[in-house]
Design a protein that fits this description.
3 helices, Thaumatin, 15 strands, mainly beta, Thaumatin-like protein 3, Osmotin/thaumatin-like_sf, disulfide bond
Length: 224
């Protein structure tokens, strides 16, 4: 049976799995977004790595069997006629990212297909810029919905906030990106799930907020 995936990124993506996959991306935001795609493990690049979607607009992308990679959405982009330019969030320096990843912070939808199961997750390991979810339909196995639909920019601690041109928070860094210390990057002695997260020395009493956001920024992988 074909497996349908509805990937909602405040854009909605649909993934069909069988011998290949079809991702349907729909922008459910009120503003224009610029989805980016990045393939991994030698998988072919999809849709030249990026494109534009107006509100309520959608597009479909075909992916071959065994594809792996990620999707993210960029915001506040301006490009010239040659396709070069910049975005407020998720930037790769051009309209068609062409193999370049998005600059954190950016919410991610990640897939590894046919390995031998299909694995997918919503990840905030690179921080957060907008809501995202994956909703599979059909197929077999534990194909559960994965989503982050809260606007974390409204709750982002000042130490992690990325401000747009108007001063409003447009993205929220991970604590690892903001401070680059082992306790936030799960490196060194902290590369152990048994070690309890300790409050940061940065920002004084903001430690509780940083811990809250760090816990939210933990990726969840789900097999299909």
């Amino acid at each position: 049976m074909e497996l349908l995936w509805l990937i909602s990124f405040v854009l909605v993506w649909t993934f069909l799995g069988a011998n290949a996959a079809v991702f349907t991306l729909q922008n459910k935001c009120q503003d224009t977004i610029w989805p980016g795609t990045l393939s991994g493990g030698g998988s072919p690049l999809l849709n030249k790595g990026g494109f534009q979607l107006e509100p309520a607009e959608s597009t479909t992308i075909n992916a071959p069997k065994g594809w792996s990679g990620r999707f993210w959405a960029r915001s506040g982009c301006k490009f010239d006629l040659s396709g070069m330019g910049n975005c407020s969030t998720g930037d790769c320096g051009m309209l068609q990212c062409n193999g370049a990843g998005g600059t954190p912070p950016a919410s991610l939808a990640e897939f590894t297909l046919d390995s031998p199961l299909d694995f997918y997750d919503v990840s905030l390991v690179d921080g957060y810029n907008m809501p995202i979810s994956i909703v599979p339909s059909g197929g077999s196995g534990n194909c559960s919905e994965v989503k982050c639909v809260s606007d974390l920019n409204k709750e982002c601690p000042q130490d992690l906030a990325v401000a747009g041109g108007n001063g409003a928070t447009v993205a929220c860094k991970s604590a690892c990106l903001a401070f680059n210390e082992p306790q936030y990057c799960c490196s060194g002695e902290y590369n152990n799930p048994q070690i309890i997260f300790s409050s940061p020395e940065h920002g004084g009493d903001s430690g509780g907020d940083l811990q809250k956001v760090a816990e939210l920024f933990s990726p969840v992988a789900t097999p299909a």
